[in-house]
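Hi R.,

Here's the chain you asked about this morning:
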Amino acid sequence: MLRRPLLTAAAALTLLAGSAGCGGGPGGLRPAVALDLKTATPKATRPLDSITWNLPYEPQGLDPIKSFNYAENTVLSNLCESLLRLTPDFKIKPGLATKSANPTPTTWVYTIRDHVTFWDGSPLTARDVAASLARHLDPKLGTWWGDYFQNVRSVRATGPLKVTVTLKKPDVLFNQAMATAAGAVEQKAQMERTGENFGTPKQGVMCTGPFTFTRWRSGDSLTITRNDDYWDRDHRAVSKSLTFRFIADETTAVNALRSGEVDGQYFYLPPAAIGQLQSSPTGTVTLGRSLSYWALLDSTRTGPYANREVRQALSAALDRGALGAAVFQGTAPAERALAGPAYWGYEKQTFQDAYDRLPHGKADLKKAKALVARAGAAAKGKITIAVQGSSAVHEQTGNLIKATGKQLGLDIEIRVVPVEQYGNLYNDPKARRGIDAFLSTWYGNVPDPLDAYTVFLGNGDNNFSGFQGVDADVRKARATADPAARARLVTRVQRGVADDVTWMPLNNLPVILYMSDRVTGAVPSFPYLYYPWATGLGGR
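And here is the predicted structure, written out as tokens:
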């Protein structure tokens, strides 16, 4: 595979030493350039009979309750609609529900849109909605959206077009999550008829969206076709069909895009050959607003990395601007928080003020060394950081971290985990055994900073190190409907997470969209994962 050369530890030291004394933007966090992040691309001028799009891997399935990932939602967002709709500019608006009412703190009542039909012509009813949401409560099915349903007591159809969700306790994230695939609606009859085969290449799905599921050839492609009877006239698809390829090899995918064999692709990390795409005479790269970030996740309760001062030292010494420039090739600005400005859907000034007060500044080796000295004997011993194999971004970031640790006298070992096994780090404690931290792309789903910090519930599945410092405030914030009061709680959570460095934010990750000159109209911002991004796709 063609890759940019990996940075050696020596090269990383040189790069960091050269950048450590540089001033930066506000607070010393210095994006090399101010990125022009988009939420829309030029409108299509004509329909096309067929468009070919690439996915970074073949979806594991199209069952919405197990769709918490990139390839799955890139397809599903055009097929299965949710009760609410997250728009490309990060607003939450009505979807299949025309209204969501909150008559009591623990009750949500959804009024379902009338005259909506599934692709087979049958009407959408409250029973379909209730059955879709209730699946998240069945432990045998194992939803991947459990964080949003942890406080749900029951889901019932309470009228032909009414669905009532009763909560065990107030939860402001639940209703917002109805704008993601957590709120996706499928046909009850098909789910019952297909059973375990629901969402598979053999059976597909039956939904109400602007495209219909047409054909899935395992190992080759998946095709969806325009739904000419779609209820939302303003969002009917421009073009007739969209075929997804599954080209996982980065070099092969870039070559297919440059040659015009494939019309477009979303990237969640920059490919090693992003320069070839940016300079391509046959297409254009667009960077979009995003809720994604690049971070180092603490996963240990013992050893030197379990010491807060060691984590603070490593964070203080890392030059995120250099990381963005050298590793992300200028596409990933330095970040100081897990929930940056794209998350601020309310009380923006409160979040801005708190953001400005977070630990920041240029790489400060003097401060970092003092922290290591303060840690004393607790800083001695090996720190093992996992990176994903076959990823230049992972491996180069690992080299930079190792080199930074060497400057501080920290013994950091980089362990390369094969790409096929890396996902196990998120859900299998045994896979994390012997690993103190690991690199990750991560994203929240809705424009509320609380969504990024709810992973730090004391008993949360993603609280890999068992951090308990903000559990009480996260729980209070989730039960707080008043935006101003919630913002105050969330900024306190944010500060606690930043001080502990249990997760270390490194860089913001914009959406990277490539489209050939033949097509335009795709949504370039993060909501493409839940919004019907392909409806506007057509010819230039």
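One quick note: The radius of gyration is 23 Å.

Cheers,
M.
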